[in-house]
Specification:
The structure holds 2 protein chains of 2 kinds. Helices cover 23% and strands 25% of the residues of chain A. By secondary structure, chain A is α+β, with helices and mostly antiparallel strands. In chain A, strand 9 and strand 10 (201-206) form a beta hairpin. Chain A is globular and about 55 Å long. The longest helix of chain A is centred in the N-terminal third of the chain and has 19 residues, at 3-21. By secondary structure, chain B is mainly beta. Chain B has one domain (2-123): Immunoglobulin-like. Chain B contains 1 helix and 8 strands. In chain B, strands 3, 4, 5, 7 and 8 form a 5-stranded antiparallel beta sheet that branches. In chain B, a hairpin with a 4-residue loop joins strand 1 (31-38) and strand 2. The longest helix of chain B has 19 residues, at 2-20. The radius of gyration of chain B is 16 Å and the shape is globular. The N and C termini of chain B lie far apart (34 Å). The chains are: A alpha+beta, B mainly beta. At the A-B interface, helix 1, helix 2, strand 3, strand 6 and strand 9 of A face helix 1, strand 1, strand 3, strand 4 and strand 7 of B.
Amino acid sequence: MDKAIQYAVVVFLLSIVNVALAGKTVNLPSDNSQWTPMPQMEIGKVKRLSKDQLSPDLKAFAEKQMAESQRGYEIVPEELFVYSSNYRNRLRLEDEVKSKLQVKLADINSTELKEYVYEGIIPEGPRIDGPWTSATRVFKRPDGVTLMLTEWDYIADGGAIVAVSELMNVTVANVPAMLSVKKSPSGKTVTMLEWSTDKKSFTITVWDDVDMKRKGREYDRKWLLNLANLISI
Amino acid sequence: MKLVVKTRRIIMFLSIIGATSIFPGSNVFALGIVSRSCAPAGAQESISVDWGFVPYALWTASSHYRNGFLHTINTVANAGAVGGWEYTWRSRAGHWGEFWYGQVVGYHYKRSGFVYFLGNSFAADCNLAQWGAG
């Protein structure tokens, strides 16, 4: 029998089955682990939980990260570093996107970022055409290292955040934060500082290793934390 | 006769692909979330996707509702996922073979040292304009 006709018959039969099922009712699932890996989350809020309060899988991830942090860095796949160059495909001018930005960007004028080269902004959000509830501003440090500041209005997205207590190793603006250095198998490095307030989630990504000693200006952990504290005001 | 059959097959294939595919031609490459209830493709699904191919640790669930019939699927059963978490640029939870229009709700999560609920996505149609197909 012609395969095209066979396909059409299958589609027709399936549509009959669907019509037959249309009247069937089922109970709503009471086990919300079907749609969340973390039932403790609360929409619009940041919660702190211990790793022992997490699901077994998430607890295992957290413990792995803790072990790697003690070593000084986490191992990440090479693919992560694609973004360190292909972000340029995403850059937009701030004036182009300003009218559709729903996230209120932090004022950086009192920070050293205003002396960096500002490359542009990358808008993000649930809708491809905005309004955008998240944005990443990209800067070039005087020594040529790329720095990204990402801000997400999680409340506008109906989002929620959980901070795993044992992974919070620093403090920014009096909230727990995580500073981590990540390395690929080939030796590429990136530093990330993440923290969340009751209004926004922040991430500073520095495509460099803040723990590497260099002559001249020290772009180290102290520098990064100082920058973050000024941004979060 | 053979040419007619072949042409018919090509047309059918293209119409299905056309209903479900769109070039991710927008220059807003970022992590997006989308749901689809796509009768022509038989796809009820929710996807977190970054068309710039940047990977994240992602977890996705998708609830599909039509005429009183509701079911949910998540990424726990995806090949390679650990507890539903995948390190990927595209995390999909969904069903094929469901040729109807209903309501689909997506639940999207991302993990680093924090766990982020990115929000819900909704769809009652193929929703091709949002973050493309795939």
